[in-house]
Amino acid sequence: MLRKLIKHELRATGRMMGPMLLIVLVAAVGGNISTYRLLETSNGVLNTLGIVLLSAFFIAILTSGVMAFALMVERFYKNLLRDEGYLTMTLPVSVHEHIWAKLLTSLIWWIAVLAVAAVSMLILVFSRNMMQEIGDILAQLHIADLNLAQNLPHLVLFCVELALLLAVGGACVCLHFYAALAVGCSFTHHKDALSVAGFFVLPAIWHVIQRVAMFLINLMNLEGVGLWLQGLPQATQTHLTMLGVTVVTAIPAALYYVLTAHFLKNRLNLG
Amino acid sequence: MRWSFANDLPIYTQLVEQIKVGVVTGAFPPGERLPSVRDLATEAGVNPNTMQRALAQLESEGLVYSQRTAGRFVTEDEARIGEAKRDLAQKHVARFMEAMRSLAISREETLSLLEAEYGKETGDE
Amino acid sequence: MNVLTCNALSKAYGKTPALSGVSLNVESGHIVGLLGPNGSGKTTLIKLANGLLTPDDGTITVCGMRPGKGSHALVSYLPERAVLPEWMSVTQILDFYADFYADFNRDAAQEMIRHLGIEEKQRIRQMSKGTREKVQLIMVMSRQAKLYLLDEPIGGVDPATRDYILSTIISNYNPEAAVVISTHLIADVEKILDDVIFLNRGCVVLENSVDEIRETRGVSVDALFREVFKC
Fold it and tell me: Which of the four CATH numbers 3.30.70.270, 3.40.50.150, 1.10.10.10, 1.10.287.1770 does domain B11-77 have?
């Protein structure tokens, strides 16, 4: 069922995100023409047009990011907690599947926005001799750091860790919104105001928990652990730090998830 | 068939009576297969359970019969249909008499009113 | 078999009580009218049965289950408001129902859509209010559910549409299922009901069969309703 939920979720969001991402790519072509043609001439009108096209490109990228973000909030609120919720929340689907469908769809669009942004940047700077330049850079890298081959596994692992951290971080941002909405909308009156309040109160509570946890950790004698860490090779230290940051990000994400699921399952109160 | 329902009687008794009228007047001819319960119910705009009850009642009165697989049929027994016709007529007469009595109209007046009504009908022809 | 069971069910909105200690049973094979004036708790009861609200007190079960994933598969629900997303086309809505409900009869739904002269590529946004309600009803009645919960299916539509809706219900519901129809337009539905439940201010005030009411009291349910709820 999760697959079907995501399919319909992509259908609902794709009709906005699809054209938006296409606009970004088209705008990148426009930007490319600006940089290499319009801005190179001494014609004032063409120069102005070049600046307009270039700004349009950056605005398009920015808008696609904002849109992905707004859709994340809007879909959860409108599709689950407002009138459409009468249809969605009575599907033979568990609350967990609903949350995961919304979460994964949001992450898919965020990844798509990043990917399209990267591709569009390439389009923007593309020129005939670009391939040549890239080749030159790679060659220089090769000369500069002969250890590259040796360090490659660490580099790959680091990239994976970074991707994981970004995904968990993104999930945490989503779940923060979801939890605030789920809690706020469980009340009979002032659902919207209480959702906004929840948005600020929940992290505050998490902050207090964090403080208490830090205090308790400080009470323990962890000097041995610190020394052990310092004794490790540089690369291992980096990996452990990445993992540590990911875990610390995952804890509030998990708490927000539990809160969201509980409120959707046991405190649903559609107006 | 036209279906219409009064407010003060059970729907099921009204259905029994209206199907009876249908049989007597030939809207449902002898030996003909009746539509399914659901179709009849949809046509009359009533609950299928109520229609089912009405047909069961008609079956016990011998006006329709069911064949296990083929469905329900109107009886071919002309005598039985004639009897039903008389029953219906009697019911109307009883209702009419009741109305006359409540208006305190005497037997002679009633009869002369009937005569006049019949005269009008033949006069029209 | 009991399809819907409520036991001392209570629900309040803030300090305003909507249902107070409602206990009732709905058996399969019956079409039941949930009747009451506006604000008597009809919609609240139906929303509780769908798990869209959480009871304050008491229990509600559908086919022996608390409302949730399991019961949703057995209940076909028509909300009192328009809930089909406006951007969706008829085809997309058919996909949606076919994907999520194993008991959805797509052919039957398509046949009814065609019968109404609606193009499948038409979007909800392009339809009149009456057509939207018909499409929503067609989706709901094209399922072979165990319990149909129809909240105000004939409110705010013209008499011809009302007839269409009622005949669609009669000719499509699964005879082993129970149908609960909530409405305050009693004269229009009374002929298709087996039983009625009168709700007033969140309490059940009468539970009886339509023919019994007519037989013993010599009045229609509509007349009885006007008597019970006289202002």
Answer: 1.10.10.10
